[in-house]
Every structure is written in structure tokens, then in C-alpha cells.
């Protein structure tokens, strides 16, 4: 199997189980309706583990552009393969979203809440706030890549690594996921969001494109930052690159802060920050 096909299949599996658990606990008349956040977090944890188990031997099972770019930024993955991996991941995620749609075909029209339908495909913030939402996704993905790199440096019983990675995703979901739905993966959000926009889902809303850039850009920035922190803190290398990238991060957050402040002043002229 080619590395790119492996990333398509692995990411598809990730979304079938991950998007599937969200649909399963939220869509009306599902036998799992009302399963709650813990079920969702565990479902995504298992989704990651199963995707990694399926294709890890072929491509390393990144299944996530933030992982691919994070590894490449510290020299653990060739930059020449990065574009192909990212395109493959987005395609796989879109296919996975389509499979989720087909599996729950009879439940979309039974569910009136259009936000719930979108949630089965992509993330949405609990409290819309450009700066805070970006920060949440940045932190969660930075932690993900920092720990993921650390896991890779340890020796486990053969075949256990994917399960440990699944535990990591579960921990992030249980502890950090309530703010934005913890995309921590641009492909996981963008591919199914495109599927949501294209598929004839009964009673669907818009695909919330004004928000869509945050679960793409923030995980990319956070993933690279987390990897650079690992390289500097754990391996004692790349301090200069980390310092330079930290300046970039501060500039991005500074711009977001002032944009957020401007928007608040425009929408609430009597509020002074």
C-alpha cells in the first residue's frame, strides 16, 4: 500500500468512528442518544487508536496535518512528503464524513437541531470568541504533539503505541475538549465540514465557514510549537528555532487579540476594555 493511500484509509477510519460517535449520541432515535461527553471522548480515543493500528505499518499513521507538520519541523519527517500527506488526510476525512452520513441516513430528518447535525462532521465553539477559541485549539494541539513526541521516544510492548496515543487523545478530550470540541487536527475538521456542505443532509444549517479557519490554523501553529518545545526541552536542540517561532506565535496572538477587541467595541460600543 502506498503511504498516501494509507493516510486516506487511516483518516477515513478515524472519522468513521470519531464522527460516528458524535452522531450516535446526538441524533434523534439513535439507541445511544444522550450518551454524553465521556462516551464521545472515549469514541474519539478509540477512533485514533484504530486508525493508527490500521495503517501505521505503511505510513506511520499521522492522520493529522498538525502531526505531519510537527514532525517535519523537527526533522522527523521529510518535507517533500508533507503536501501529499496533508491532501490525503483531508480526502480521507471527507470520505469518512460521507460514510457517517450514509450510516445514519434515517436519523438526519428525525433530528431538528441543525447544530447537532453539524457537530457530527466538524467542531464548533461552546462560546464563540476568536481569540479564546484559537488559544484553546493551540494549547490542546501543542500538548498533543509534545506528549506524542514523548511517547515515540519510549519503548512499549510491541503493538501498544497506538493504544497509548488513543489514551492521549482521550485525555485531551476529557480535560481540554469542552471549549471548542478539540479538533486538534485540521483534516478532521475541514474534510468532514466540506462533506457537510456538499451532502444532502435533511434540515442542515450552513457549515459555519467563518469559524472553519480556526480549527485549521490553530492546530498547525500549536502542533509545530509543541514539537519544537519537545526538541528544545527534551533533546536540548533547536533553541534558536523555538525562540523565532515563539515570536511568530506571539505576533499571531497579538493580532488576534486586537481584532477581537475591535470586534467587541464595534458590536458593543458602550463596553470599554
TrEMBL record:
This is Glycerol uptake facilitator protein. The keyword Membrane applies. InterPro entries: Aquaporin-like, MIP, MIP/Aquaporin, MIP_CS. One of its GO terms (cellular component) is plasma membrane. The chain crosses the membrane at residues 6-25, 37-56, 85-104, 131-151, 163-184, 211-233, 239-259. One of its GO terms (molecular function) is glycerol channel activity. PANTHER family: AQUAPORIN OR AQUAGLYCEROPORIN RELATED (PTHR43829), AQUAPORIN-9 (PTHR43829:SF9). Keywords: Membrane, Transmembrane, Transmembrane helix, Transport. Belongs to the MIP/aquaporin (TC 1.A.8) family. It comes from the Bacteria. It comes from Marinococcus luteus. The keyword Nuclease does not apply. It is a multi-pass membrane protein. It is found in: Membrane.
Amino acid at each position: 500500500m502506498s503511504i498516501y493511500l494509507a493516510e486516506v484509509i487511516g483518516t477515513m477510519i478515524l472519522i468513521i468512528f470519531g464522527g460516528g460517535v458524535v452522531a450516535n449520541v446526538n441524533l434523534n432515535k439513535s439507541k445511544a442518544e444522550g450518551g454524553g461527553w465521556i462516551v464521545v471522548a472515549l469514541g474519539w480515543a478509540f477512533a485514533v487508536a484504530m486508525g493508527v493500528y490500521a495503517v501505521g505499518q505503511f505510513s506511520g499513521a499521522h492522520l493529522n496535518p498538525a502531526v505531519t507538520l510537527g514532525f517535519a519541523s523537527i526533522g522527523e519527517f521529510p518535507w517533500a512528503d508533507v503536501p501529499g500527506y496533508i491532501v490525503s488526510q483531508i480526502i480521507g476525512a471527507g470520505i469518512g464524513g460521507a460514510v457517517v452520513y450514509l450510516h445514519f441516513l434515517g436519523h438526519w430528518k428525525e433530528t431538528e437541531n441543525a447544530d447537532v447535525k453539524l457537530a457530527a462532521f466538524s467542531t464548533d465553539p461552546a462560546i464563540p470568541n476568536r481569540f479564546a477559541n484559537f488559544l484553546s485549539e493551540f494549547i490542546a494541539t501543542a500538548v498533543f504533539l509534545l506528549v506524542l513526541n514523548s511517547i515515540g521516544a519510549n519503548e512499549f510492548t510491541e503493538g501498544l503505541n497506538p493504544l497509548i496515543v488513543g489514551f492521549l487523545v482521550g485525555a485531551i478530550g476529557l480535560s481540554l475538549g469542552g471549549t471548542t470540541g478539540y479538533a486538534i487536527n485540521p483534516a478532521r475538521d475541514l474534510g468532514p465540514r466540506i462533506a457537510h456542505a456538499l451532502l444532502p443532509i435533511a434540515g442542515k444549517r450552513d457549515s459555519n465557514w467563518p469559524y472553519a479557519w480556526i480549527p485549521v490554523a490553530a492546530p498547525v501553529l500549536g502542533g509545530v510549537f509543541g514539537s519544537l518545545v519537545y526538541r528544545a526541552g527534551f533533546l536540548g536542540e533547536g533553541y534558536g528555532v523555538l525562540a523565532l517561532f515563539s515570536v511568530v506565535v506571539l505576533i499571531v496572538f497579538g493580532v488576534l487579540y486586537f481584532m477581537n477587541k475591535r470586534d467587541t467595541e464595534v458590536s458593543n460600543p458602550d463596553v470599554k476594555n
